[in-house]
Amino acid sequence: MKIDTVILGGGIAGLSVAYHLKNKKYVILEKEHLVGGLCKSVTDKNGFIYDYTGHLLHIKSKYVKKLVRKLLKKNLALKNRNSWIYSNNVFTRYPFQANLFGLPEKIIYECIEGFVEAKLLNSQFSILNSQFCFYDWCLKTFGNGISKYFMIPYNEKLWRIDIKKLTCDWLGNYVPQPTLQEVITGAFTDNNKKIGYNATFFYPKMGGIQSLIDELKKNIPGIKTDVKISSIDISKKIVKTNSGEMKYKNLVSTIPLPEIVKLIKGVPENVKKASKKLKWTSVLNINLGIKRKNISNKHWIYFPEKKFNFYRAGFYRNFSESLCPEGTSSMYIEISYRNRKTSKEKMLKKTIGKLKSAKILKSSDKIISECILDIPYAYVIYDKNRKSSLETIRNYLRKNFIFSIGRFGGWKYSTMEDAILEGKETTKWLK
After folding, report:
1. Backbone angles phi, psi at 280, to 5 degrees
2. Are 170 and 382 in contact, with CB atoms under 8 Å apart?
3. φ, ψ at 144 (rounded to 5°)
4. Which residues are within 8 A (CB) of 99 and not within 5 positions of it... i.e. 6 or more apart?
5. Taking a C-beta distance cutoff of 8 angstroms, is the pair 409, 9 a contact?
6. Closest Cα partner for 416 from 132, 101, 153, 198?
7. pLDDT tens digit string along 250-273?
8. Which residues of the chain have pLDDT under 50?
9. What is the Cα–Cα distance from 169 to 214, expressed in whole angstroms?
10. DSSP letter string, 121-174
11. Quick one: which H or E segment has residue 417?
12. φ, ψ for residue 303 (rounded to 5)?
């Protein structure tokens, strides 16, 4: 069988490519039974709908906003972010650096003093200065206090590496940088000013994030699921799968770079070596259904302290009441890991205990649903090897007419909106 464009992976990036190819001949090959990648939901026997962690639509592009509204129509709600940090036994608003109000007085003054000192000493400092690692950037941008109580411990917990080895290439607009006035205002008043790229978000009213995928795939007839790729012959332009061979003109890959390098026959040694230098963080996504309504009024909470094994927890009912049966609540808890040794059962037990110690769960709460989703590839690590390794691999793939896109195909920190736009843009290169 010969196809103009073969798309590897049915996540949102791959689906976007197919959607924007319109009437051209293509096929999506997806290894799972359902498309969506990490942008999908599961429904358990009790009627709880769980996403693969919090999948919220932070949309800036007019095009993507128009597309999402076209697909979901009335099944779309705009939410104002209500996110918090739990540390020092108190809740403070997100972002930490602009909302110190509620913390012990000593910590507030330590954070303000450090911030002022950083501003005085580093007035010419630029995020674009590549000589700085993320650790240095935190100290130069926020000072010792804010770095000590949130930026350093939280990011060490998320990335699972020494953040002195983390570059600043991923930052973009993801880390809010408040002014001195905003820091002081947020230190002495309960300031609800929305700061950051995710101050608002869209989310489906019904069906979880899966509803976006369901509407998108209605416009994409060329989808094959349960397809396992065994090898790719770039000289003959053939993809070999468990259901036969497929000859292509263009190959678009959204699968993780280390995985596609393994699949290609005769990969040069320098490309193999570059692939082995790529690093990433995995996430264990624990979902719980609780027989109590309104366990929290928050969207999600960050946990920077080491005593908690998770870095973030969110509450589905506050995205949409349709995600929980009547009289119940549900939540997702995210635990990042690299080379996990602890069993899922032990991690679940510890997580429940820590949620109780933070008084999010009560000792009397009855957990009526548990769903653990393992995400092997979750966050790309930006270290000193990423840029050169990525360039080596992508140059090789491009030379062989393979377009590698998306979070893991492009090996980058990106959003659902980014994936949709990149999928659209990629179609311009497919002839």
Report:
1. -155, 165
2. yes
3. -65, -45
4. 85, 92, 93, 186, 191
5. yes
6. 198
7. 999 999 999 999 999 999 999 999
8. 127-128
9. 34
10. H-TT--TT-TT--HHHHHHHHHHHHHIIIIIHHHHHHHH-S-GGG--STT-TTS
11. helix 416-426
12. -125, 95
What is the rounded CA–CA span in Å between residue 9 and residue 252?
9
Q: How far is CA 332 from CA 100, 292, 371, in A?
A: 26, 15, 9
The token pair at 223 is 């989808």
381-423 pLDDT, tens digit each: 999 999 999 999 999 999 999 999 999 999 999 999 999 999 9
Report domain extents, the chain: 2-40+63-76+208-278+383-429, 96-192, 280-380
Residue 105: burial class (beta carbons within 10 Å; 0-12, 13-18, 19+): exposed
Q: Is 95 left (phi over 0), alpha (psi -120 to 50) or beta?
A: beta
Distance between CA atoms of residues 114 and 117, nearest Å:
5
Q: How many angstroms separate the Cα of 79 from the Cα of each of 82, 158, 319?
A: 9, 25, 8
Return the pLDDT at 125: 56
**CATH fold label, 280-380:** Polyamine Oxidase; Chain A, domain 2 (3.90.660)
Just give the CATH number of 2-40+63-76+208-278+383-429.
3.50.50.60
Strands (E) located in 9-156 = 26-29, 41-43, 49-51, 77-80, 83-87, 90-93
**Residue 168 in tokens:** 């600043």
Q: 286 and 372 in contact (C-beta within 8 Å)?
A: yes
Query: In sequence order, what are the residues at sequence separation of 6 or more whose Cβ sits closer than 8 angstroms to the Cβ of residue 398?
Result: none
**By three-state DSSP, how is residue 293 classified?**
coil
Is pTM, for the whole model, over 0.70?
A: yes
What H or E segment, with its residue span, contains residue 67? Answer: helix 62-72
Q: Is 280-380 the same fold as 2-40+63-76+208-278+383-429?
A: no
Question: In 209-297, which ranges are E strands?
Answer: 223-224, 229-233, 238-241, 244-253, 280-290
Closest CA to 219 of 24, 22, 427: 22
- In the block, tokens 């206090």 appear at 145
